[in-house]
């Protein structure tokens, strides 16, 4: 028997792991998936609960801690003494299992309880909402592109009979993929850009780990260097890269290519932004081009609130087999084929994915603008 098994035989650990099949099928990360070594650790700690019809972890919160949707946007606060139920999985969805879980909470926890579920686990969420009457507080987005719903079951109430209040999330956080309402036709500008695309220098492969088969590349019109092949955002890079480049001054600037595309400047004017950040042509290869499901939460600048960077896509070359997918905070997947002469806003903090199964490379003009009230009127 191996040390990690904590004295528990392998068959027992595998049987416990099987109980989390419904939970694991929504996991997008090896860190959230329930595996046999996780089971051994939790059983040894005494924090794994197995009822007849469900399994989950239960732990008491020791300190006050915020629950962030992402960045620094809170949806709630766990207080000392609260119970957090996580890794929840029904082994069956019967009424008996639902009642058993609810009764377990009421009998065992004389305090406020937080319960986590995957946003895409609609069967579990429907039970929590309509059958058990839990309060849906909000959704946390992880860097792995996972969506975790936080539910609340209040125990304590104030002198007015009210339970704990939770922060209101700004309206700007509920957009994910939106076609812009442009003020005028842009077809003549797009056509002019299309005629010049073939004259661009070689595109630089994107450094992201979700760039499957190295099928995604870019060239800069505006970025953190005067060279168009430099497509990097220093804020997104790891500690090693930042240490190696600590003496380099990266400033937002136009590359020498930008003057070759006055049409892009015309498109930028339509976005009603007072400040522009990166402007790039981004290519997704034909046939096997794929960006795996991910978020861009490593970059703290993204968003739609004032001062945040709003990302706009203008399709320049595309085909009917290019698909863009984006998941909203409810777990709903929006699938879009962006058309030439359209413009789309993508909130890159939400999970998203792109594929190109066509026979022609997809090229988008991607512009990051500093969001303001005027630019948001285009949504």
Layout of helices and strands, plus pairs?
Blueprint lengths: L9 H9 L2 H4 L11 H10 L2 E3 L3 E7 L4 E6 L2 E6 L4 E8 L4 H14 L4 E6 L3 H10 L3 E7 L5 E7 L23 E3 L7 H11 L6 E2 L5 E2 L3 E8 L15 H6 L8 E2 L7 H9 L5 E9 L4 E6 L14 E9 L4 E6 L5 E4 L7 E3 L5 E5 L5 E9 L2 H4 L3
Parallel strand pairs: 5-6
Antiparallel strand pairs: 1-2, 2-5, 3-4, 6-8, 7-8, 9-19, 10-12, 11-15, 12-13, 12-14, 14-21, 15-20, 16-19, 16-21, 17-18, 17-20
Helix pairs in contact: 1-3, 6-8
Key structural traits:
single chain; 379 residues; alpha+beta; 8-stranded antiparallel β-sheet; 6-stranded mixed β-sheet; 9 helices; 21 strands
Task: Report on the architecture of this protein.
With 379 residues, the chain is an alpha+beta fold. It has helices at 10-18, 21-24, 36-45, 95-108, 122-131, 187-197, 239-244, 262-270, 373-376, and strands at 48-50, 54-60, 65-70, 73-78, 83-90, 113-118, 135-141, 147-153, 177-179, 204-205, 211-212, 216-223, 253-254, 276-284, 289-294, 309-317, 322-327, 333-336, 344-346, 352-356, 362-370. Helix 1 (10-18) crosses helix 3 and helix 6 runs antiparallel to helix 8 (262-270).
């Amino acid at each position: 028997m191996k040390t990690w098994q904590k004295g528990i035989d392998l068959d027992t650990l595998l049987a416990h792991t099987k109980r989390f099949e419904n939970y694991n099928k929504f996991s997008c990360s090896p860190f959230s998936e329930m595996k046999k070594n996780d089971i051994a650790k939790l059983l040894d700690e005494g924090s794994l609960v197995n009822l007849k019809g469900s399994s989950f972890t239960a732990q008491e919160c020791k300190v006050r801690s915020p629950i962030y949707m992402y960045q620094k946007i809170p949806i709630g606060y766990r207080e000392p003494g609260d119970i957090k139920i996580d890794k929840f999985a029904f082994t069956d969805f019967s009424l008996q299992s639902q009642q058993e879980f609810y009764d377990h909470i009421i009998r065992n926890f004389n305090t406020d309880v937080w319960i986590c579920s995957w946003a895409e686990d609609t069967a579990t969420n429907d039970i929590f909402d309509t059958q058990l009457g839990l309060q849906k507080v909000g959704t946390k987005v992880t860097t792995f592109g996972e969506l975790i719903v936080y539910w609340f079951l209040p125990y304590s109430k104030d002198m007015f009979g009210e339970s704990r209040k939770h922060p209101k999330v700004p309206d700007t956080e509920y957009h994910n993929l939106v076609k812009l309402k442009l003020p005028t036709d842009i077809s003549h500008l797009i056509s002019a850009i299309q005629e010049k695309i073939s004259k661009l220098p070689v595109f630089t492969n994107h450094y992201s780990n979700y760039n499957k088969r190295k099928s995604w590349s870019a060239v800069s019109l505006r970025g953190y260097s005067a060279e168009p092949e430099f497509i990097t955002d220093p804020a997104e890079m790891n500690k090693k890269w930042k240490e190696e480049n600590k003496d380099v001054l990266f400033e937002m600037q136009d590359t020498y290519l930008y003057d070759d595309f006055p049409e892009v400047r015309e498109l930028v004017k339509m976005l009603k932004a007072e400040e522009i950040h990166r402007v790039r042509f981004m290519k997704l290869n034909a046939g096997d081009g794929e960006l795996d499901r991910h978020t861009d939460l490593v970059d703290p600048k993204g968003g739609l609130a004032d001062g945040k960077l709003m990302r706009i896509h203008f399709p320049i070359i595309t085909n009917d087999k290019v698909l863009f997918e984006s998941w909203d905070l409810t777990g709903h997947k929006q699938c879009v084929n962006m058309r030439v002469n359209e413009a789309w806003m993508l909130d890159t903090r939400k999970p998203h994915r792109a594929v190109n199964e066509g026979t022609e490379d997809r090229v988008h003009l991607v512009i990051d603008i500093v969001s303001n009230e005027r630019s948001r009127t285009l949504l």
